[in-house]
Each structure stands twice: as structure tokens, then as C-alpha cells.
Amino acid sequence: MLQFNNLSLRRGARLLFEQASLQIHPGQKVGVSGANGTGKSSLFALILGELQADGGDLRYPRDWVIAHVAQETPADERAAIEYVLDGDAELRAVERRLAQAETENDGERQAVLHGRFDAIDGYTAKSRAGQLLHGLGFSTHDEARPVSEFSGGWRMRLNLARALMCRSDLLLLDEPTNHLDLDAVIWLENWLRVYPGTLLLISHDRDFLDSVTSHIAHFEQQRITLYTGNYSVFERLRAERLAGQQAAYQKQQREISHIRSYVDRFRAKATKARQAQSRLKALQRMEQIAPAHVDSPFHFALRAAAKNPDPLLRLDGISAGYADTAIISQVKLSLSPGDRIGLLGPNGAGKSTLIKLLAGVLSPLQGTRETAKDLKIGYFAQHQLDLLQMTLSPLQQLQQLDPLAREQDLRDYLGGFGFSSDQALMPCGPFSGGEKSRLVLALLVYQRPNLLLLDEPTNHLDLEMRQALGLALQDFAGAMVLVSHDRHLLRVTSDRLVLVHDGRVDDFPLSLDEYPQWLAEQSRQERVGDRESSAINSAAARKEKKRLQAEQRRQLQPLRNRVNTAEAALEKLHARQRQLEASLADPGLYSEENKDQLKVLLLEKADVDSQCECMELEWLEVFEQLEVAQGSLQQ
Question: What is the per-residue burial (b if ≥16 Cβ within 10 Å, else e) of 59-75?
């Protein structure tokens, strides 16, 4: 197990935590939470041996393999899949020793190494690496691309895949979702749920923590407290403990009253009923979690726009993309004050393209983009962090927007975003990614936009800031379009879900909770090559569908024959596997005089195992094709 015994740690003169004593048992999945700067990442550095404790000790089994995500990626010319395979250090070591044994023509050593290679699933390693890359959003073509060709965010995904490739006993993940979209987050969530080792996970994504973790280690007031349960359970337990902080609690309740007033005003109005109902559901959730955040340093509201024309912006028959290649086509979308849209869609489908089109950053290839005279857009994207004036303080950058404002009023405003006292006067160059994101949001909000376009605004933001942002967006009177991998933020701020998929932009007919199932179904359809045409309702499409159904009926019998053939082949291979396993279980086989026979049997066993895997994949593919064909005929 992982044991902390009266552990204390300082960084310079600053005490991060002291006398921390807790035990994390094998297989437990622990979410690590707490405000920025409380020592979460430093704890990881301590476990990795990069820092030394100032008191107490940290213990774990000597033979544990620890995996973590590297923060730097070399400009490597090797293929991405080879870079990921390097995550399994033992696999690479066995490969090197095996190559050396073959060069030296050492048959006995080769046989032993082939046995070890089989034991560590070396024959399936490349397939496993490909699955990791695919789950994190890489295409099959990307597997062969040099690492040096990928951008910084995609290199971080490669580092994550490399860490997951390691057959580790302890996995340390520090904000793994920061460079992922929602699809990859959902995939990673499912992967971590079945990960057999011990997990320590730093994350500011509430839904992600809820889905993955069984315990929460919370950093607060130089202490580490281990709670049993996921993040929602932790919030409730901490809320009960903090219930005595009545003044702060009442302050937060006043913020929530803004949402309730909206519900009370518009619940009876037909045009606003759906939005009011959505806000009511979000409010119920917020009231449950609010007491756990009474001591949040972030308290701000979105400033009302001077004017809110209706409609604010309209897209009609828009096609957009890059060069002459359209990513999305025939887009029709109208935005009015009060609209709150959450964008969904697979990686690369065009969500950011749509946001850029709405922002006017990208010109349409076809169609018209109509804007109201008084439209004022607030556009947040990660690249805008680089547009900050790094030599200026938050106060100076705000004064550039409003030279006539009183300094105290501006400092009070910045305080709501966590820039209080001296930090409001410091150059922002040394700020962390989260601090820069907060500053960009503060500058954007100050300009009083009536249309907010937010492309992954929560990257690098901690849970308290995400909570404050969610509350502020609830009371925003303008329109909002949001792309985010944070499902909690999507859930509490979006009244309408829009899907960007297959070049189209349409309303998503299901709920956010059903989106993972929709993604899984899309993935299954891609595997069997059964995507339907976007013109399925046209007369030509109906005629083509009938023709395909007739063709599928003719194909059913050959598919059944292939399934039967694969099953028969698998039965023979499994029988041979059992025979080989029985032979290899004979102790006499491992004597010196039988080493040649042992080598032959081990090589045959590896070959049969490989054939079994290929045949099982073939059987699964054919069986899925048969199921799809049968399902199509029944429709």
C-alpha cells in the first residue's frame, strides 16, 4: 500500500502540508483535490523522488512500477506508436535482449525471452498502443507520423498514451483532461474505471472525478484529509463540516437567488418555459453542492450588455472550413438573447470551426452570416492566453479597457476573479495557466458582451473557479455558445445541445447523460462501415436503402458461413493451445537436453496465440456485420 506517516513538505519558506498520515490500498482510485498551490502536484513530485520530505516518511512496495505523464515531449522523429510503446519499459527491454540473443544465436536464451515476451502480452502490445491512440483522438494515419509533427496539445496526449501503456502498479495523473475534448475524456474515464492498479488523480472536472474515484484526498489548511466516496460524496461531507460558516453560506445563497428569480419570472412564459425548467434542475444540483464552496475566493457576475438586439446573429446556408475544404455545410443557426447552447460532437467534427465562424474569425466558404448592429462578442479560446500583455499587470490591462474608471473599482472587480492585493499589480508573464485563463475571462467579461463564445474555457481552472463561472453564466442575459469537456458546466449552463457531426450542425435529440452511449454507437457503426447517408429521407435514398436491403439478404448466408468457419478454426486453435499448455507444464521439458524442444514449443505457442487473437478479431468483425445486416432487415 501507499503510506503517508506524519508527512510534511515545504517549498522554500512556504509550508504546503504537515503531519499528513493516511493509507491508500492497492486498487483504490483516489481523487486529489484542493485549491491551486496547496501542494497537490508537489505530492506527486515527492512520490516520484523529485522532492524530499521535510518531515515524516512516504512508503510503498519496492517493486511497484509507477507511471506518470511527462510534461515535456522531445522533438522525436520516431512514429507516434513507437513513442507510445516506449511506455512499457519491460517490453522494450525484452525486445532488446531478444534481438541480442538472436544476433548471438543463443537458442536457449531466445526461448526464455520468448516465454517472457508472451507473459507480458508482447504480441498484443502494438494493438494495445493503437487502441490507446485511437481512444485519445488519433487517427490510424497518425500512428505512423513522427512525434515532431504534432502540436503541443497533441504531444501531451501522446505522453498520456505512453503513461497508460505502462503496466503500472501506481498511476499518477495530474490534470489529464486539460488537453482532451469531451469524447476523449469519456474514453479515458471508461479506461480508468477498469484500470487494475492504484490511481492518484488530480482533476478539476467534477463529473470525471465522480465517475472514476472511490476516495478523495483533500488538501486544505496545510492538512490532507482522506474521504471515502467520490467527489459528490466529498462535497456533501465537507458541506456538513462547513455548515457553521453561516455568513459565507448566506453570501453564496444570495448568488443562487439570482437563478431562482429567473425561474420565478419566466416559468409561466411559454417562450421561456424550457429554459426556466432547465435552470430549475441546475439550481437543485447547485443548492446541494453550494455549502461545500462557501469559502471560494471567486465571486463575480457577468456585466449586463448595453443592448441585447434580437436576433444577435444568424447563419444561413453556411459552409465553412479551411482552404477550399468544407468542414461543416448547410448550417442554419439563429442566436437570440437568452439562448444557451452547448456544442457536442466527435473530435475533429468542426466544433471549433463553428465557434470561429460565429466569432467572425473564419470567413464562410458559402452562405451568409448576418449580425445585429449592436452585436458585441466575447470570444474565449486557449490561443488568447498568448495575446495577454505579459509585462503588464491585471490592473494595467483593465485600465487600458477603461481609462476613466476608478482604480479601487477595478481592483474590487479583479478581486472577484482571485486577483487581490499584490497579485493585481504583478506582471502576468509568470502567472500559471489557470491564472492567465482567469485574467482573460475577467477582461472579456468587463467588456459587457451580449454574445459569449466559449471554447474550452475551463482548461487550467480549478473547481472553485468553475463553480463561480457556472453561477455567473446562469445569470447572463445574452446568448452563449459553449464547447467544453466539463460536463458539469455544460449541464448547469446549457438549455440546448447542438451536435456537430458528419459536416452538419443539428439539435442533439438526447440528453447529455446519453451522449456517451451515442458516441459508443457511432464507434460501433464506424467499425462495421454502416454509416447512413445524410440524405436518408430523400426519395433516391429510400430507393437505395431498398436495394441495399435486398443485397443484405443475399449476403446473410455468406456471413453466417464465415462466422461458422471462424468458430471452427477457433475451436481447433484453442484445442492446440490446451495441448501446448499441457506440454509446457511438464517439468522435464526444461532440462538441458530438451532445450531445443522447449524452444520449438514456445515459438509454436506464441504463433498459435497470435493466430487465436487474429481469428477472434475476424470472428468479432464478421459477427458484428451479421448482426448489423440482420438489424437492418428488421427495420
Answer: ebeeeeebbbbeeebee
Helix (H, G, I), strand (E, B) or coil at 199: strand
* Highest mean pLDDT, choosing among 74-83, 379-388, 401-410, 524-533: 401-410
Provide CB contacts within 8 A for 347, sequence distance 6+. Answer: 137, 181, 183, 184
Distance CA 110, CA 41 (A): 43
> Residue 47: its pLDDT value, please?
92
Does residue 311 have a cis bond before it (omega within 30 degrees)?
yes
pLDDT digits (tens, 9 = 90+) for 343-370: 998 877 889 899 999 999 888 999 999 9
The C-alpha angle with vertex 417 and arms to 455 and 292, in degrees rounded to 5, equals 90
Cα 413 versus chain centre, distance: 32
Grid coordinates representing 53 are 520530505
Give 357's Cβ-side CA count (13 Å radius): 29
The residue to which cell 504537515 is assigned: 18
Helix pair 539-584, 595-634: axis angle to 10 deg: 160
The rounded distance, in Å, linking the Cα atoms of 325 and 305 is 36
Give me the pLDDT at residue 38, please. Answer: 83
Q: For 323-467, list the strands marked E by DSSP.
A: 325-335, 340-344, 366-371, 377-380, 451-455
The residue among 184, 192, 223, 226 whose CA lies nearest residue 209 is: 192
Instruction: Please tell me the predicted confidence (pLDDT) of residue 433.
Output: 80
Q: Please give the model's pTM, rounded to 2 decimal places.
A: 0.70
Q: Are 633 and 552 a contacting pair, CB within 8 Å?
A: yes
Q: What is the pLDDT at residue 532?
A: 46
Q: Give the DSSP H/E element, type plus range, for residue 217.
A: strand 215-220
Residue 407's alpha-carbon distances to 207, 300, 394, in angstroms, are 39, 17, 12
SS3 157: helix
Mean pLDDT of 203-227: 91
Looking only at the bridges linking them, the beta strands covering 29-34 and 215-220 are parallel
Cβ contact 231:33 at 8 Å? yes
576 close to 608: Cβ distance less than 8 angstroms: yes
| Biggest CA-to-CA distance, the chain | 94
Each residue of 369-390: b (16+ CB within 10 Å) or e? Answer: bebbeebbbbbbbbebbeebee
| 80 DSSP 8-state letter | H
